[in-house]
Amino acid sequence: QDRRVTSPDPTNTTHTATATITITIKQSDTRAPWFLPCTKLHNDTSVCISSPYSGRVNISEMSTEPLLLEPGPLYAVDPDYTISDRIVYSIVGGNRDEVFSVDADTGNLTMNKTVTSPNSFLLQVMATQVSNIRKYSVATVEIKVINKSNFPPSFEKGVYNGTVFVGLPRRSFVYQAGDPSTPLVITAMDEDFPDV
């Protein structure tokens, strides 16, 4: 704003000056990384809660590819979008016998060795901002250990015939065609489990 500068000396003349001040507002680093997908709480854009991740591996078999996880791959972002700091990943808990590793840059979870017991893993994976290690989030990843399926299940019959009575509510029984007193039974077999 212009302001008159006056001097007590009457011989001096009055002068004015103009200055332009530029103020740049930078976003501060206020939020920790968010694992995606996530859900914002009550229209509050500062908090976003992610669901746990889950995956599975076959017992006594080592995958050389990144593990497939639900609801998707491990991925975190800096929610301070104008800063958009780089995120690095690390496993901070639950990694018995160092079976798994995580790529620090991509978040891809891979196996270092085979799993020899059927016990599941509950990993804690941390996403940290590179420029501020105090800005981090931890996600839970449950890895179930399963027996490999060598055979697909198959139905005992190729065609099943049933009868449904008109006007019955949903979830009513379907009866065997030709025998309206016997419920229709559909059976399947899996050669991986011959005794079941």
UniProtKB/TrEMBL annotation:
Which SUPFAM superfamilies is this protein grouped with?
A: Cadherin-like
- State where the protein is found: Membrane
Q: Which GO terms describe its biological process?
A: adherens junction organization; calcium-dependent cell-cell adhesion via plasma membrane cell adhesion molecules; cell migration; cell morphogenesis; cell-cell adhesion mediated by cadherin; cell-cell junction assembly; homophilic cell adhesion via plasma membrane adhesion molecules
Sorted keywords for this record are: Calcium, Membrane, Repeat
Asked if the Swiss-Prot or TrEMBL record annotates the protein with the keyword Calcium, the reply is: yes
GO MF term list: beta-catenin binding; cadherin binding; calcium ion binding
In terms of InterPro entries, this protein maps to: Cadherin, Cadherin-like_dom, Cadherin-like_sf
Gene Ontology, cellular component aspect: adherens junction; catenin complex
Q: Give every Cadherin domain span.
A: 51-155
Top-level lineage group: Eukaryota
Q: What is this protein called?
A: CDHR5 protein
Q: Which organism is it from?
A: Polioptila caerulea (Blue-grey gnatcatcher)
